[in-house]
Amino acid sequence: MGGLASIGAGLVVVGASVGIGLLAASALQGIARQPEATPKIQVNMLIAAALIEGIALFCAVICFLGK
Predict the structure, then answer these.
(1) CATH code of the domain in which 29 resides
(2) Is residue 66 pLDDT above 80, yes or no?
(3) Closest Cα to residue 13, out of 65, 63, 66?
(4) 30, 40, 51, 55: most buried, per Cβ within 10 A?
């Protein structure tokens, strides 16, 4: 069962990385199109990134508890 937990944790890391990468790319495109909205976009991006990281940490803990 330990191997499956490791695979699950790896999938969590990959998923969180892709999610944050897409989030950052979208935020940068939005800032490039509308520079005056930079503060609002940055705040929303940071909140969303924190939520993604929280979910990823929660999922990683679940994977390792299943060991």
Answers:
(1) 1.20.20.10
(2) no
(3) 63
(4) 30
